[in-house]
Design goal:
Blueprint lengths: L10 E3 L5 H12 L6 E3 L12 E3 L1 H7 L2 E4 L3 E10 L3 H7 L1 H6 L4 E4 L3 E13 L5 H18 L3 H4 L4 E4 L6 E3 L4 E2 L1 H7 L4 H4 L22 H13 L6 H16 L2
Parallel strand pairs: 7-10
Antiparallel strand pairs: 1-9, 2-3, 4-8, 5-7, 6-7, 6-9
Helix pairs in contact: 9-10
Length: 250
Amino acid sequence: MEDFSKKTSCVKFGNIIFSDQRTAAFDHLIRYLPNPNILATSKAQLAHGKRIERPSAVCLDKSKWLRFNTKAIKFLIFDVDHVSLDRFTQEHVLDLLRLPPTWLIATDRGVQMAYALRDPIPTRSMSLATKKWLTAIKETIIARFDADQRASMRNYGVWRNPLKHEGTLNLESEYTLAELAEAFAVPRTRQRQKVSSLAAQKPVKGFVEGERNNALYWRCVQEINRFPDRYSEESLGDFAVAVNAEQLNP
């Protein structure tokens, strides 16, 4: 089997990291990290009440997890559980050769893969058309690689630090949304799909768009805007619990 990393200029990380390669990777990534960032060397430190913030340079050097895309979406990050790095590479070698990811690393749950965008997208002020198109692209990639839906649909949040995990890093792999859509054959109908009026609706207190509860967030937005007099803050919470139960027990 052909090693996809040999087809690119990627840096292979493992037990040995050459200092000049690490410096180049560090200098490239630090430009796109929120500052300050989180310092977490164990899962226990990821708990919201225990999170420590430090300058992003310190976190990139020491932390196993990092906060990404807070102000602008630079990296589309996908988590694929229950598969080894070797097996994932073997099963998806053609996709990886056709469009090398910016990084592909092993985690204790499976693998994490990221595609960097050539032009970062403002996280909280992107147009609805761009949001729709980005969602269609991410859904297609998730289906192609059988990635975790909840973790991978997030636009911003906490993911693994690629410099602290074994895998590959290709700094030259940056893409436009159009290039990603073409490579993964995102249906044209999704690109031209009529934009709905969801983004113009009022947000819902207590729910955060873009995090793991994104689908639930939009269900609640729709519901409270359709029936503004039906729900109090407490009863909307009951509605959210009911929707979540439906998703967990279809």
